[in-house]
Design a protein that fits this description.
Elements (H helix, E strand, L loop, with lengths): L11 E14 L2 E14 L3 E5 L6 H8 L7 E6 L2 E2 L5 H11 E4 L11 H12 L7 H11 L15 H12 L6 E5 L7 H16 L3 E5 L11 E6 L2 E7 L7
Bound molecules: adenosine-5'-diphosphate and magnesium ion.
The site of adenosine-5'-diphosphate (ADP) has 12 residues, from β1, β2 and α1.
Length: about 240
């Protein structure tokens, strides 16, 4: 952020400035995010870790424009989120952000390929005649091209998460946000999914992943630890030096 103009700096995927998110509760206010400042550059692969209740999901939902902050500003993937209407946010998100969740959230009555085509139908950026081909290519890319015509329930958990990642890539977003994407997978499958994220990052995508994986630091370039809605550590891996 350029402090003088308040505009986001080029090359910066995410700029969070003094963001507070408070929820009303019967016991008073719950401050889920407490005066958060966070900058993430284009092409970074960042893990957000911390105990349950530390604010990880709230931060991700704020970055995705799913939630609005109580105060503060978020510049994400070229947009000042506070300046967008709900429909503007939905259109922005559909184009610039790929979302991946713990429980996959595939639509059970659609085939895997149809699930991947849904964001394309919504954003209308990919011509209609190219959508099925693109869905198949994305499913190939994540390693489950042979599952395209099946219903999600017939896939393993790891395959469903790969399908969800293909769906997140539907409109070729520069930013991927994933909330505990390995939380419902066995450790071997979880490693494979994290390797896929690493490959997608190597292709130039900015990735922010909330995770409980203990050995995430060997994969990501930066690990941020939250506690009570604040950053308590923010560690960058030394470039090119293996753990
Ligand atoms: P994490 O993902 O790290 O487990 P969350 O972001 O889900 O943490 O939650 C952070 C804090 O905010 C917790 O104290 C949680 O109870 C509270 N919280 C989250 N969502 C809501 C909500 N919709 N209403 C009230 N409190 C909430
Ligand atoms: Mg959470």
């Amino acid at each position: 952020m350029n402090a003088a103009t308040g505009t986001p700096t080029a090359g910066r995927a995410i700029q969070v400035s003094d963001v507070v998110k408070a929820y009303p509760s019967s016991a008073g206010e719950v401050v889920a995010v407490d005066h958060l400042d966070l900058g993430i550059d284009d092409g970074e692969f960042v893990a957000i870790v911390g105990r349950s209740g530390s604010g990880k999901t709230t931060v991700l939902n704020l970055l995705a424009g799913i939630d609005r902050p109580t105060s503060g500003t978020l510049h994400v993937a070229g947009a000042d989120l506070g300046s967008l209407s709900e429909s503007g946010l939905a259109a922005w998100r559909g184009r610039y952000v790929g979302l991946v969740f713990q429980f996959f959230q595939l639509l059970p009555t659609l085939t895997v390929a149809e699930n991947v085509m849904l964001p394309m139908d919504f954003a209308k950026r990919i011509p209609q005649g190219e959508r099925l081909d693109r869905a198949r290519r994305l499913l190939d890319r994540v390693g489950i091209g042979d599952q395209a015509g099946k219903l999600p329930a017939t896939l393993s958990g790891g395959q469903q998460q790969r399908a969800a990642i293909a769906r997140a890539l539907a409109n070729d977003p520069p930013l991927l946000l994933a909330d505990e994407p390995t939380g419902n997978l066995d450790s071997h499958t979880a490693d494979a999914v994290l390797d896929l994220f690493a490959d997608l990052n190597a292709e130039g995508r900015t990735i922010v992943v909330v995770t409980h994986e203990r050995d995430i630091r060997s994969i990501v370039g930066r690990e941020i630890t939250l506690r009570d809605g604040r950053i308590v550590t923010d560690e960058t891996a030394p470039a090119g030096v293996p753990e």
